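Re: the 427-residue chain
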Amino acid sequence: MLTGLRPDSAKVWTLDVRFRNTVPEAVTLPQHFKAHGYEARSFGKIFHNPWPDNVSWSEPHRWPKGAKLWSEDAKKRFRTFRDKLKREGKPERLINRIRPQAVEIVDIPDKEHIDGAIAEQAIVALRELAAKEQPFFLAAGFIRPHLPFVVPRKYWDLYQREQIPLAKETSLPSPTPPFAMNTMYELRDYYDYLGTSRPNQGSLTEAQQRELKHGYYASVSFVDAQVGRILDELNQLGLQDNTIIVLWSDHGFKLGEHNSWCKQTNYEIDTRVPLIIRSPGAKSNGKSTSALVELIDLYPTLCDLTNLPAPEELEGQSLLPLLEDPSATVKPAAISQFTRRLRKQHLMGYALRTQQYRYVEWIDRKTKETIAQELYDHDKDPGERKNVANTPEYAQTLTQLASQLRSTLPVPLAPEDPRFMNSATDR
C-alpha cells in the first residue's frame, strides 16, 4: 500500500525482506507528499517495525518512550517460564521465539499503554503542525487489536465474557489442500497458548475461545477510543474541514472461523479489512459502498484528493468516483496473495475476489505450474466452507476467473530470487 506496488512488483513476499533492497527507487506515499511540500510525520506501526523508512518522513520515526504493555507480574511469570524451559533442555530457537501471555488485563491509564502513547504522540504532533502554514501528512499506526490482547481494564469491563458469541463457521474449507490454512503459529508463540493444536488437528477449549474473543473486543474498543482522541483534537484545532482522514487495517483476523485464529491465508476472513475515507465536502461522506476496492488504491486516491500528480508506476486505482457516488464501480475484482513453503516446494497462492466469487490459485514458483485451485460462491457460501473448484457446474466460472486473474497478474516472477527461496512464512 505504501509503495503503490503489488508484492510481485515490489518483490516483497515475506516480512524479512526490506523493500528498499528490492525496489530502492520506490517513492512511498508519505515520501511523495513530502516531495510536494507536505510535512510528513509517523508514529507507531506504519512501515514494518524494524524498518520505519525514515527517508519517507520529515523527521525520524520515534516510538514513545516509557510506554508499557504487559504488567511487571506478567513479565516475571514469563521469565520464570523461560527459565523452566531452559532447565528442561528445550531448544534455544523455541525459547527465543516465545513471548509473554497472549491476554492480560492491565491497570494503567490509556496514555501509559503503548497504543495510548502513540495516540498522545499524534496529538502533540497535530498541535505543532496546526501552528504552521505548511500542509501535513500525519500517520498514526496502532498495534492493537493485534496480539497480544493486553489493554486497560475499563475496556474489558465493556463486555461480559459469557455473552460474547463464538464463531459460527468453524469447519475448515473442504476439499482444499492442507497448506491453504494457516497453522496459528503466531498464537502458539505466546507461552499461555504454547502447544495449541493446528486447525486441522484440534480446537481451542471454549474457555480459551471466550478469553481470546474478549481480549479482541476489548482491544478494538481501546483503539477506537484512541482514534476518537485524535479526531477530537483535530476538531478542537479547527482542522476538520481541511483534512482528509483515512482509517484502515492491514489484514483481517480469524476468531475461531475455520477452526482457526490469527491470519495468513487467502480467505475472506483474513483479507477483508476496515476502510473508511472522509474527505471534506465529498458527497459520499457518511455512506457505505459495496464496491470492490484494494488498499493499493489509497495512494492514487489521496493524490487525486489533494490534486497531486500520481506516479506512473502505481498499480492501484483512484477511489474518487466512490467518494462522489457510493453506487459506482471502480474495478471488477480485488486481489490478494500469500506465500507458502511446503517442504522444498515454494508456492504462491493468489486470490481473486469478485462480487460473487473468491478464486484461489496455488502456483509452484519453480515450475510455474498450477498445483491447486479453490473456488467459493459467496451467494451460497459466504463463510467459504465448500470449495466448488472441481464441481462440474462451476467449470466455466473457474476457467473465466483463472483467465481474469492471469490477465491482471500476467506472469508470476521467477523463483530464483534468493530472498524468496530462503524464506519461510508459516510453521
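The longest strand covers residues 334-342.
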